[in-house]
Hints:
The complex is a heterodimer.
Chain A: E1 7-11, H1 15-25, E2 30-34, H2 37-45, E3 53-57, H3 65-74, E4 83-88, H4 92-100, E5 105-109, H5 113-162, H6 168-184, H7 191-195, H8 199-205, H9 218-221, H10 229-236, H11 238-251, H12 258-269, H13 290-305, H14 316-325, H15 333-352
Parallel strand pairs in A: 1-2, 1-3, 3-4, 4-5
Chain B: H1 13-19, H2 24-36, H3 39-48, H4 52-68, H5 72-87, H6 92-114
Amino acid sequence: MQIEKDLILIVDDIDINRMILRDILENDYNVVEAANGAEAFDVLYGGTVCPTIVLLDIMMPDIDGFQVLERMKGDVNTKNIPVLFITAADSDETESRGLNAGAADYITKPFNHDIVKARVDIHVNLARYQHGLEELVEVKAAEVTRTYEQTLEVLATIIEYRNLESGAHIKRTTLLTEALVSKLLTVEMFRPVLMAENLHALIKASALHDIGKIGISDSILLKPGKLTPEEFDVIKTHTTIGSDIIDSISASLPDSNMYLKYAKDICHNHHERWDGSGYPRGVSLEDIPIAARIVSVVDVYDALVSQRCYKDAYSHQESLDIINEGKGTQFDPYILDILPEVAGLFNSIEENYKD
Amino acid sequence: METNINNNENINIADALARIGGNEKLYKTLLGRFLEGNHLEVLNDAINSGDREEATRQAHTLKGVSANLSLVKINTLTAEIERLLHGGEDYEECLNELKQAFDSTVAEINEIIAT
Lengths: 355, 115
């Protein structure tokens, strides 16, 4: 036994037809009636109720059934509600036109009590089953994504520990990236660019920017003091190694994944420079993926304010000044224009997530 | 189900009652609504206005309602008129037949409502 009865919307301009359908259905369903297209829209888009299925007469004055169906199919909130056309028994053409327009089924006048009841039952049950499946898929997809993100975060953290840095760098990178992305979203110039991206995946992927360091030997990675040019060339390969690691993970998965796409963009490009003098490829300007342009600022900021095996920590303000010296050469100057607006937030993230 | 209203020439009452679970009270209410709808007059007006499309639509509506109330004679004739109007053919004779059928059907409806 269901607790709540499903709601059926009956749209017909003739009250007699609505009353007969109501009589057939009201034992098992809640019924709401609309006497024309405009009333149907009031019910469908009024925001108070959502019918499980709609019984829709075709021939109505002003807004006819086809127009009602067209609007329903064009609106994300109603396109999945099954529509059963009400049609005269002798109009094959109307039936096929209705089905082609996206109707789930049709019932014919004169109504047959048992057939109307059976058709409505079938479509209500199908809709309920589909809703259940959709919810299940959503839950499962969220679980898979979470597992994924956790696995890769663990990987990134392990690498940071090897680097003699704490896992806090990973946490800070993610938070700093999130802060900068949120601020950039309020800027006219960046909003359309960022709205086209999956920002949740982008922010999560920033944690993986240095996973390529797993392929760098301890003698170079952990060397205190200045590296030789040869050693620095080896360090540079952590970008392409990271990108290759992501490629090998992607290859083992059946579907393309936004999270890994951003991870690759970031690993490969977070040492590229705005003026094209970076590595590994020397690309410049907007050819550097937006995710990497953002993370390069974040990564340098966090490196400057932290103590590393090769350097002492700079203060918050010193770090901002050093970054600003790279405006238009190392960094996207338009991102740096916005940086002062999140500087306070950057500072408090550093304070709250110390090594 | 036992019923104290009987089938007659113009109306298939058993058929109509099967549609609404044998609910005689509801059937009488629906027939009352049908009389209030002045469907013949509405159809006539549409035809006289010369708007053939609107007249076709009204014939179609009347066809559907009469089918649902099992007003068999009206149903047969409105289906024919809809076809004639739609095809641009002569409908006068059929319309006269419909007017007669309407008169006798309305008389029978009044009897049913009175029982």
